[in-house]
Write a structure and sequence with these properties.
6-stranded mixed beta sheet; 18 helices; alpha/beta; two-stranded antiparallel ribbon; disordered N terminus; about 425 residues
């Protein structure tokens, strides 16, 4: 009717049922009317009941189609399970050179508190290759079964929906079923919207179910996995601010449409950019733990030739190249697993923290993020080396990766002889007792 709105889906449904009724054989209504006469019901009531049954069946089929489409959309291009795609990712051990960047990626795999890695460089310097390769080294994670937020059962950190059920006594977190999955690899597209990044209310599901349904965003899926941002310098400023705010706090908070949602978000951030296209804003560079350049170290002719040969071999036969470096890759993966356990008891002494602060003053670093990230790098480097305590080598690694690049522009890490000698590690407790 004019002046009144009507859902297009309802109009189409009515038209489809009218066409179906017109095309039904003449014997079907006759049988229905005869059956209704024998049952003592009016013929019009029987016809109405039959049409209602067909409408209900059509609605059920539509719901099934919508559910299948949503499941296919959830596994879209933005959320990629690289492990399920087979051995087609170039191994990190096969990358020629770029030792500082590879070390930084391994350290971030050990300790996500470092704050991520941003890699600058011109075209064809293996920036994206290294970002995807480090994902293959991360160990599997344990999550609550069917959790869209990848909640860790042992962390005690829950999303708003799960926490509300636990507080109400509806479920016991210790009795929930868990599963082991591969860490996710989530890529943030340049044209991503705020709703897709943080999550939003699913209007279609909410209307169909009668309850407010929240659709998690990319940050929810990336929790405890890898969050990859290519060309981060071209990302919208408001989007990049939302992204780094969530990563720095470790939580995503969404307040909209009468819904309040909060869930943990601690992925390994890996970002790349080409400085020829646009420079990375300084406040973004400061909030990411490690900033390195793939063009800083000169490439010799032999290294360039070896890199080309490996790329050609991988394009012809990827499984063969992966198998050749499989032993080194497995060694890296095992080292990360053990290092995460060593990291739990790794601490820095006050004298070691003072050394990092003095190096930050010498380099002219603004703020305190350089020292904080350097402390986490030193802890991760000691854990990766299997040491019991942080040594002077670990402190120098923190200065090279976190403090020196903040004192100047993104450049090659400084040589060790340009740094002050760090303080020695404290003596073991048994020696202190003897003294």
């Amino acid at each position: 009717r004019r002046g009144k709105s009507c859902r297009p889906s309802c109009i189409m449904l009515v038209l489809l049922h009218a066409c179906a009724a017109a095309l039904q054989p003449a014997t079907a209504p006759a049988r229905t009317v005869a059956a209704a006469s024998r049952a003592g019901r009016p013929a019009c009531a029987a016809a109405t009941s039959d049409a209602a049954d067909r409408a209900k069946a059509a609605l059920d089929a539509m719901d099934a189609d919508v559910s299948a489409a949503e499941a296919a959309s959830a596994a879209g291009a933005a959320f990629t399970n690289l492990n399920a795609a087979g051995p087609s990712v170039f191994p990190l051990a096969a990358v020629v050179g770029q030792e500082a960047i590879k070390t930084a990626l391994l350290l971030c795999g050990v300790n996500p508190r470092i704050g991520g890695v941003v890699i600058s460089g011109s075209r064809g310097t293996a920036k994206s290759v290294m970002a995807r390769a480090v994902h293959q080294l991360l160990p599997p994670i344990e999550v609550f079964k069917d959790s869209p937020f990848n909640i860790d059962p042992e962390s005690g950190e829950y999303d708003s929906f799960l926490k509300a059920k636990i507080d109400a006594g509806e479920i016991d977190p210790n009795a929930l079923e868990t599963e082991v999955i591969d860490p996710p690899f989530v890529q943030v597209p340049l044209d991503v919207l705020e709703d897709r990044l943080l999550g939003a209310v699913d209007v279609e599901k909410s209307v169909r179910t009668g309850e407010t349904v929240f659709e998690p965003g990319l940050l929810a899926r990336a929790h405890r996995g890898v969050l990859y941002v290519d060309d981060i310098n071209l990302l919208d400023e408001s989007t990049s601010n939302l992204l780094l705010e969530a990563l720095s706090t470790g939580y995503v908070t969404v307040e909209r449409e009468g819904l309040s949602v909060r869930h943990p978000c601690r992925p390994l951030l890996i970002a790349t950019f080409n400085p020829e296209e646009a420079e990375l804003r300084e406040h973004l560079m400061d909030r990411i733990g490690v900033c390195l350049s793939a063009d800083a170290e000169p490439v010799t002719g032999d290294d360039r030739l070896e890199a080309v040969n490996r790329a050609l071999e991988f394009s012809r036969n990827p499984p063969e190249v992966v198998q050749r470096f499989d032993e080194t890759t497995e060694s890296m993966r095992t080292s990360i697993i053990f290092a995460r356990e060593y990291l739990k008891s790794m601490k820095l002494e006050r004298a070691q923290q003072k050394y990092l602060c003095e190096e930050a003053v010498r380099a002219g670093v603004q703020g305190h993020r350089g020292e904080l990230f350097a402390i986490e790098v030193a802890r991760a480097n000691a854990a990766l080396a299997g040491e019991e305590r942080v040594s002077s080598t670990d402190l120098q690694m923190g200065v090279r990766l976190c403090i020196a690049p903040r004192g100047t522009q993104i450049s090659a890490p400084p040589e060790d002889d340009l740094m002050q000698a760090p303080p020695p590690p404290p003596p073991p407790m048994d020696q202190e007792d003897e003294d």
